[in-house]
Amino acid sequence: MSLFILDTDTLSLLERGHVKVSERVLSQSPGEIAISVISVEEQLSGWYTLLRSVTSPQRLAHAYQRLAETVRFLGGFQIVPLSEVAIAEFEQLKRQKLCVRGMDLKIAAIAMTSNATVVTRNIRDFGCVPGLAVADWSR
User: Fold this and answer.
1) Torsion angle, CA of 130/104/125/112, rounded to 10 degrees?
2) For the segment 37-66, what is each residue's pLDDT rounded down to a tens digit?
3) CA-to-CA distance for 105 and 89, rounded, in angstroms?
């Protein structure tokens, strides 16, 4: 059985009902689809940032509603943690100076230590990581 870890960008497309991404996700068995704890952090951090900046009661209520929807959505996935083994892999990747953002390197490390494929539109950056399997389901 294969494991596919959806990157944050692909997860956002899925949440918005992107047809091709939705079809590919639905064509896999549930145990084959996962997200990383890093994507959870990125998704929730975005909502927390917005919540701290909203001043209108209407916008604040809407932001909290969307936060609740996001939490329910994310809870439907297997969440792969950043284990100590993945942290060691992340540190090794960082030493290679790959010009890849830290959060993306953490997702790559999680995927590599889980023998998983990262599903992302960001093939340019993730493709720089030696030994990492990547796929773009949005095309």
Assistant:
1) 20
2) 999 999 999 999 999 999 999 999 999 999
3) 9
